[in-house]
Design goal:
- The protein is 51% helix and 25% strand.
- It has helices at 31-58, 68-85, 99-106, 108-125, 149-165, 192-208, 218-228; strands at 3-12, 15-25, 89-96, 131-136, 139-145, 167-168, 175-176, 179-186, 214-216.
- The strands form three sheets. The chain has a five-stranded mixed β-sheet with strand order 4-5-3-8-9, with helices on both faces. It has a two-stranded antiparallel sheet with strand order 1-2.
Amino acid sequence: ADTKEIYMPIEKGDQRLALVIARKKGNYFDTTRLKLCSLISSHIAVAFDNARLYYIAITDELTKTYTKRHFRQCLDQTFEDYQKYGHKFALLMLDLDYFKRVNDTHGHVAGDAVLMKFGEIIRYSVVENDLAFRYGGEEFAVILPSTGEKGARYVAERIRSITEATTFEPGTIDLKMTVSVGVETCPAASSIQELIIAADKALYSAKKQGRNQVVFAQTSADTELQEES
């Protein structure tokens, strides 16, 4: 049978968002169907633009990780999934070691470049369902759904080792950086507040013990020992 096609660019202002192709077997599209296609095209353009604006709202422009505001929404949802379905998960809190020295010595442009690269390292080190956030300044957070102690340790060590091996701003200032990581898991923590506090304390312990290391919260460590015994 004969097939007729129309091409509908989905645009918002000067930005082309998508291309929709409509096919009709038999006769050509009549005026009514052309108007309907035009209306559908307009609705799709609005939906795409809303999605784009939402992405901008929840994404840190510099590091391309999610924002701190979105962090709490995602953590609430992940904890709710745990309560409903028993899906365990892990929270990583990460802080670049001696980052203030970068800004003080090389300026904020260099500091921003380091943060951008570190954002890339985190996004490279996690899988599609994991969620990475810029928590504030040089501090980041990662939510690892359906992940226990073993998986959390693997991801945390992966981020730590890649960071240590990376040369930031190569060919210019050739910076070497390290990162400290604190980890807490759920159900080791029984509430969202406990989870955040425990992961933050573990991060502080990593800093206090010499930096460039991964430290698990005591509740997670206790659970891990019980599982091994």
